[in-house]
Amino acid sequence: LKGCFTPSCVFQMDTTPESYLDLFPLDAIVYLTPDSENVLEDIDPDKVYVLGGLVDESIHKQLTLRRAQEQSLRTARLPIREYMVKAPNSRNYHSETLAINQVFDILSTYYETRSWPAALRAGVSSGKGYMLSDTAEQ
Predict the structure, then answer these.
(1) Catalytic residue positions?
(2) How far is CA 108 from CA 19, 20, 75, 103, in A?
(3) Residue 77, SS3 per DSSP
(4) Mean pLDDT, the chain, whole residue set
(5) In the chain, what are the domains?
C-alpha cells in the first residue's frame, strides 16, 4: 500500500493475467487469511499483501490458508482477536471473515493512522459480532 490514503484519494489498479507468484518473489508475499496463526502486527512497505477473494466462510473454511501453504507463502491475519471482543448479540454470530473491501479499508486506515483500534473500528462492521475491547479503546 503506497500513496494517498485519505477518503478523497483515487486508487489506480493494474490488472494482469499473470499470477502474483510470477510477479513477486515468494519471500515478499504475505497471504492474508483469517485462519493464520500469525498476527499482522505492522505493514511492511517491502511486502506484497494478498487479499483473498472468498467470502463463504462455511463452505470454504481454511481454503485460503491451505492455498497459501501449498504455495509456500507466509500468512498473517488481522489482529481482530487482539483488539476486539465478541459482542453480545441475539444470533450469537461472530465472524473474523471479512470482505475484500473491508480488509482494504482496515489496511489503508492502519497505514494512515498506525492504529489498529482505529483501523478495526473503520473496517469491521457491527454485523460481524465484534466490538473494540475496553483496553483497545484506551
Answers:
(1) 56
(2) 23, 20, 19, 9
(3) strand
(4) 84
(5) 20-132 (3.40.1280.30)
Task: Note the pLDDT tens digit of each residue in 21-54.
Answer: 999 999 999 999 988 999 999 999 999 999 876 5
Cα 83 to Cα 50, 59, 120, 126: the distances in Å are 22, 27, 8, 14
Residue 63 · residue 54 · CB < 8 Å: yes
Q: Give dist(CA 8, CA 15) in Å, integer.
A: 23
Q: Please report how many Cα atoms fall inside a 13 Å half-sphere around the Cα of residue 51, on the Cβ side.
A: 15
Counting Cβ atoms within 10 Å, is residue 9 exposed (0-12), middle (13-18) or buried (19+)? exposed
Per DSSP, the three-state class of 118 is helix
Spatial CA neighbour of 117 closest among 85, 76, 73: 85
End-to-end Cα separation, the chain, in angstroms: 27
pLDDT > 80? residue 94 = no
Cell of 2: 503506497
- Cα 74 from Cα 87, distance rounded (Å): 30
